[in-house]
Specification:
With 272 residues, the protein is mainly α. It has two domains: 118 residues; 151 residues, Four Helix Bundle (Hemerythrin (Met), subunit A) (Up-down Bundle), CATH 1.20.120. Helix content is 79%, strand content 0%. It contains nine helices and no strands. The protein is globular.
């Protein structure tokens, strides 16, 4: 499987290169190459996840090595879903690079054998994990759209219409893409929290235990709820919305990784 992880990493890196070259030269064949490499990498990533599931009989998030593989897979898959809807081609470079970082990091992390545990064989856990990972990937796409929005807005304000102005989508499209990503991510995060509560009740006998991961997941939910509320009630759009999408994803990264390493809790098992 190490060879397949290497191939997956290489495909994601090549996809990043293809999309970045497309940004510079605006040649359609470069976009197609980036897309093909990303799709092939996603396929290999899917095979890896299927292999781990077949080997252990449980969803492969038992350690950091497996978690990063699923994270890379989620980012690539979510990008394709939003690319089909919004056609923001240049976002592919960001998505491919993020997926590559996840898979390369998983290769560098020792993939120790995880003991099969009956508490992991639970449909609520599967629903919880899939919803959380895909939701976080949607937030990652919103962050990428936010960066692109700020770059394009700065290019417009300079009135020089330089590098980014000619190569990035319109501000309206980037704003709409970011909003759709956040709305999708928030919906999935809500589902993930609800299924997590049900899973916790079935395994530990309580819905909420003030675990650091639970607390920061709640903080993340409240933050994105505030972002959506601000957009729908007071018109948080444009640069403010883009900035909040970037801040929100920074909180997601801390919740996803930082809490496990810096704070104690039962979710820390997924980083060992």
């Amino acid at each position: 499987m190490d060879n397949l992880i290497t191939v997956t990493s290489l495909l994601y890196v090549l996809s990043s290169v293809g999309y970045i070259l497309f940004l510079f030269f605006q040649k359609e064949y470069l976009h197609r190459l980036g897309q093909i490499f990303l799709a092939t990498g996603f396929l290999c990533n899917s095979i890896l996840i299927g292999y781990y599931y077949a080997k252990t009989g449980q969803i492969p998030v038992g350690n950091l090595h497996e978690t990063l593989l699923v994270a890379g897979w989620s980012v690539a898959g979510v990008f394709f879903a939003f690319q089909y809807k919004f056609k923001v081609k240049v976002l592919g470079g960001y998505a491919a690079l993020l997926a590559a970082v996840c898979v390369v990091a998983s290769f560098l992390v020792p993939g120790r054998i995880v003991e099969t545990r009956t508490i992991f064989n639970n449909v609520w856990l599967i629903a919880h994990v899939v919803s959380i990972f895909v939701g976080h990937a949607a937030f990652a796409m919103a962050c990428g759209a936010g960066f692109l929005y700020i770059a394009q807005e700065n290019a417009i304000k300079t009135k020089k219409h330089g590098f980014f102005y000619k190569r990035l989508p319109s501000l309206d499209l980037l704003d709409s893409t970011g909003y759709a990503c956040i709305a999708t991510g928030f919906t999935l995060l809500t589902i993930g929290l609800i299924t997590g509560f049900i899973y916790a009740k079935s395994v530990w006998g309580r819905f909420w235990g003030w675990d650091p991961k639970e607390v920061w997941s709640g903080i993340t939910w409240l933050l994105y709820a505030a972002i959506l509320h601000g957009r729908l009630t007071v018109g948080w759009r444009g640069k403010k919305a883009a900035t909040m999408a970037i801040i929100g994803f920074a909180v997601v990264l801390f919740t996803f990784f930082g809490v496990n390493f810096l704070l104690k809790g039962h979710h820390g098992i997924f980083t060992r």
